[in-house]
């Protein structure tokens, strides 16, 4: 607590797809072990280091245990503000890493082995909270074309105002927060919100996320004295409650309109996505500088950076999962993600 803590950055390299293999794409990304990855292609020969690297053969369970996600859940229960966000090119496996297969529903649940970081974290959280006095609730938002929309409130999604206060920092006004006590309840909320999220198909991805989504689990605990003094009710001598959060951020993928073949509304969405990711990258670049050399951090440049301000440069603990394709055709976007993630490793917070 209060010590400078670096962002933990891990890398996941997805397998080549059938389309890429049929097309004859070369694999240009190779894991070297010990958190190192090598990119070898014409005019490009570079090695990058991360806290951990998960190659194409890594299971969802291996990513959960090896990324430090379990420790993040425990810190959230202890009252810290914890965030995990997946970043990378469109079609690089961000949503799969966080949520598992897309074709999930109550009637068609995913195989337990394929469940993502979210469901595994929910299980871990509920196991640890069993028998305790933790109160758990969830809120689910998307940022679509620079509008913040609630994915859990009934009716068509409407824009919510983003406010700032000295005590809370940036927050969303009037967002719905739903209490839950079981795995079924929180998974149902996740599926309900995900179905309302904006997605579209284009040349690189049949289920491309067109918005950034933030699912936040609020964890409130109150340590009540077991032996109240005479005349005091239960809880009268209670310790201050601990309030932790665990936020999952599924960023929309960066994309080049020329590669995706987007036009019309898709092109407008792509420009909005790229602008907010550029603002995020700019904040990360400035935060990566030593504290004494930092200039003003422009969190207000986008709704995304405002909502991530506490996670990136404030009092939070953050895990970044960078997702890349090993295909030679995606080389420029892959290098961009690797440079971006390398800068993020130098960012520090004070939890």
UniProtKB/TrEMBL annotation:
This is Kinesin-like protein. Belongs to the TRAFAC class myosin-kinesin ATPase superfamily. Kinesin family. GO terms for molecular function: ATP binding; microtubule binding; microtubule motor activity. ATP binds at residues 88-95. InterPro entries: Kinesin-like_fam (IPR027640), Kinesin_motor_CS (IPR019821), Kinesin_motor_dom (IPR001752), Kinesin_motor_dom_sf (IPR036961), P-loop_NTPase (IPR027417). One of its GO terms (cellular component) is microtubule. It is found in: Cytoplasm, Cytoskeleton. Residues 6-347 form the Kinesin motor domain. GO terms for biological process: microtubule-based movement; mitotic spindle organization; spindle elongation. Keywords: ATP-binding, Cytoplasm, Cytoskeleton, Microtubule, Motor protein, Nucleotide-binding. PANTHER family: CHROMOSOME-ASSOCIATED KINESIN KIF4A-RELATED, KINESIN-LIKE PROTEIN.
């Amino acid at each position: 607590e209060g010590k400078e803590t670096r962002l933990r950055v891990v890398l996941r390299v997805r397998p080549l797809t059938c389309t890429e293999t049929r097309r004859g794409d070369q694999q240009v990304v190779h894991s070297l072990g010990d958190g190192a990855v090598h990119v070898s292609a014409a005019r490009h020969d570079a090695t990058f280091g991360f806290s951990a690297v998960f190659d194409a053969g890594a299971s969802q369970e291996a990513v959960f245990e090896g990324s430090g996600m379990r420790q993040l859940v425990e810190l959230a229960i202890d009252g810290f503000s914890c965030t995990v966000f997946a970043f990378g090119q469109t079609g690089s496996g961000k949503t799969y890493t966080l949520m598992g297969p897309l074709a999930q529903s109550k009637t068609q649940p995913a195989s337990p082995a394929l469940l993502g970081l979210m469901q595994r974290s929910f299980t871990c959280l509920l196991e640890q909270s069993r028998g305790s006095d933790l109160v758990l609730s969830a809120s689910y938002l998307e940022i679509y074309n620079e509008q913040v929309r609630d994915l859990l409130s009934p009716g068509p999604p409407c824009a919510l105002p983003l406010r700032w206060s000295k005590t809370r920092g940036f927050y969303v006004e009037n967002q719905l927060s739903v209490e839950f006590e079981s795995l079924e309840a929180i998974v149902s909320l996740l599926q309900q919100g995900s179905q309302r999220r904006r997605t579209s198909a284009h040349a690189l991805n049949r289920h491309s996320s067109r918005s950034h989504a933030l699912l936040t689990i609020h964890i409130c605990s109150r340590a009540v004295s077991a032996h109240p003094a005479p005349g005091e009710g239960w809880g009268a001598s209670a310790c201050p409650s601990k309030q932790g959060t665990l936020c999952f951020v599924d960023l929309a993928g960066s994309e080049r309109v020329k590669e995706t073949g987007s036009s019309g509304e898709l092109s407008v969405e792509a420009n909005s996505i790229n602008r907010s990711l550029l603002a995020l990258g700019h904040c990360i670049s400035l935060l990566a500088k030593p504290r004494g050399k930092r200039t003003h951090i422009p969190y207000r440049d986008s709704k995304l950076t405002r909502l991530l301000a506490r996670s990136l440069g404030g009092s939070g603990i953050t895990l970044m999962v960078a997702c890349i394709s090993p295909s030679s055709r995606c080389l420029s976007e892959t290098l961009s993600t690797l440079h971006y993630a390398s800068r993020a490793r130098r960012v520090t917070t004070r939890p």
